[in-house]
Amino acid sequence: MSSRKTYVRPMKGWWLKNPFYVRYMIRESTSVFVTLYAAILLSGLICLSRGEDAWQLWISVMNHPLFIVFHFLALAACLYHAVTWFKVAPKVAPNFYIGSRRVPDMTITLIQYIIAVVCYFLLYWIIWRF
Amino acid sequence: MRRKRSHEPVFWSLFGAGGVVVAFILPAMVVASGLAIPLGFLSVDQLSYDRIHEFSRTWYGGVFLFFTISLSFWHGLHRIYLSLHDLGVHHYRQFYRWLCYGLAMTGTVFTAFFLFLS
């Protein structure tokens, strides 16, 4: 048995060398905020099932400045994800045709923005009215 | 000869569905659950125990919360797993694979369980 020490090209900081890679890494890092936020929502659901006192505790923890800062970052992450998601969707989805003309990528992206804004307001309205 | 099938399409589908949830629903959810009270968009009464509890017990409230939470887990953890490669973590791939998808599965089961309890 021989132990070989093959050269492994160092990877540290590779993505800082090109703005395209930086944007790629920002997009990928949104997943950390999404996962943490999912865990926060789940903790809220657990408190909800434990009764009113637990729910009040959860709400008061959410009002802690650190959590407010986190939620601002999480909001930015989700919106950044949304922008990148709407941008690539036309490339992933099958081509749409109106008559014989293909619907341009820009139109598909724009329609998603409109649907997203409608969704945000609808959800807010449901919470407001329910 | 039979070839072993990849599990990737299953996880990618969950990732994709989660991506839609994160883009169309999560921004509004983050504002509602984390920022609305401090910023004054919603009053404490509007997020009171009675209202939210009642909502979570309706079939549509339960379905909404289940898919919002579980698909966010699947989306986020699939992306974290793939990003380990970009960060130069090449050892113990199988371990991290089980860890990420295991956590997503745990989150899904917990969400269903506590929705059922509440």
CA-CA gap between termini of chain A: 71 Å
- The total domain count of chain A is 2
Per CATH, the superfamily of the largest domain in chain A is: Fumarate reductase/succinate dehydrogenase, transmembrane subunit
pLDDT under 50 segments of chain A (min length 5)? none
CATH homologous superfamily grouping of chain B: Fumarate reductase/succinate dehydrogenase, transmembrane subunit
DSSP strand count of chain A: 2
Which second-level CATH architecture of chain B applies? Up-down Bundle
Lateral strand order in the biggest sheet of chain A: 1-2
CATH topology of chain B: 3 helical TM bundles of succinate and fumarate reductases
* Envelope shape of chain B: elongated
- How large a portion of the residues of chain B is in β-strands, by DSSP E? under 5%
CATH architecture label name of the largest domain in chain A = Up-down Bundle
Q: Could you explain how this protein is built, in words?
A:
The complex is a heterodimer of chains A (130) and B (118). Chain A is mainly alpha-helical. Chain A has two domains: 11-81, Up-down Bundle (3 helical TM bundles of succinate and fumarate reductases), CATH 1.20.1300; 93-130, no CATH class. In chain A, 74% of the residues lie in helices and 3% in strands. Chain A has a two-stranded antiparallel sheet with strand order 1-2. In chain A, helix 1 (19-50) packs antiparallel against helix 2, helix 1 (19-50) crosses helix 3 and helix 3 (65-92) runs antiparallel to helix 4 (105-129). Chain A starts with 18 loop residues before the first helix and ends with a helix. Chain B is built from five helices and no strands. The model of chain B has no long low-confidence stretch (mean pLDDT 93). Chain B is 79% helix and 0% strand. In chain B, helix 4 runs antiparallel to helix 5. The longest helix of chain B has 28 residues, at 59-86. Chain B has a single domain (10-117), classed as Fumarate reductase/succinate dehydrogenase, transmembrane subunit (3 helical TM bundles of succinate and fumarate reductases, Up-down Bundle), CATH 1.20.1300. Chain B is an all-alpha fold and 118 residues long. Chain B is elongated. Chain B starts with 7 loop residues before the first helix and ends with a helix.
